[in-house]
Amino acid sequence: MTTEHEAFAEREVPAREFTARGIERALRFLADVRARPAGPWKPPREVLFGNRNSRPLPNAPALAQRRFATRREVGAYLSPRLRPIRRQIVDRASFWSWLGIFYFEGTVRIVDGAAKLSPLDETLVIDPGNPHSRWRMHFHYLRAAWRLFEAHGEEAAFLLDQAPASMGTLANRVLQSQRIFNSIGLVPLILRLYTRDGRQKRGFKDGSGGLMHLIRVLEQLERTHDVYHMSPDAVIRILPPDFDPWVEASA
To answer: Closest Cα to residue 102, out of 76, 129, 74?
Structure first.
């Protein structure tokens, strides 16, 4: 027997965006989940579709509620549907916030029957009126997955094959720096040096030749080289010897 929720989840609905009141209600919902992580976690339908809380998105695509196991699944589903309105929604916080709650049940991390939410609301809801919230937009689970899928495809396979709510050191570094994220070579370079067979290499973060060292070296190299428009191999050729063991291990 199909429940009302299952029937709704199977049905496509036009995407919407939150009003200021909707953002407030969505943030309150996240606070309630943190206070009662054992559930239930279903967002109130009135928050998503009530006219005081949300409004139609111009040229809205039709979307169905579903679960996403990986960022790749998010990207594969959203990419063709959002492509016609990409410019309109890429930085539209009110839309991504609505989408974060619309797909809340499909992305929330459950551990031992309890919802595990990030302390950052922006992983799901971005407050357009709060500049600090907008500054953390890159942490939004669905937006991050969609952008990785669109911009880097298989070059970012390691990150795409992780759960949407997985935000470790590598993902944070790639997503929080627009210069690194938008570069043609640095994302594949970072993943080449510090991952193998779908796992992060041991000790990748700190120490000589590690990720944090690489970030500091790139800040120095950009003074004399256009590192953000160089291929991975071209960047490797100008890295200091400290990185040789990581380069050799990636061959």
So the answer is: 74
Residue 110 domain boundaries: 1-166
CA dist 244 → 51, 94, 107, 189 (Å): 58, 45, 39, 13
What CA–CA distance (Å, rounded) separates 179 from 158?
A: 20
Determine which of 6-10, 19-23, 122-126 has the lowest per-residue pLDDT on average: 6-10
Q: In terms of DSSP H, where are the helices of the chain?
A: 4-10, 20-35, 45-49, 71-82, 86-89, 93-102, 104-107, 131-135, 141-151, 157-160, 169-176, 178-181, 186-194, 211-221, 232-238, 244-250
Domain final position from 118, 134, 166: 166
Residue 180 region by backbone torsions, left for phi larger than 0, else alpha for psi between -120 and 50, else beta: alpha
How many domains, the chain? 2
Tens digit of each residue's pLDDT (9 = 90 or more) over 46-63: 999 999 999 999 999 999
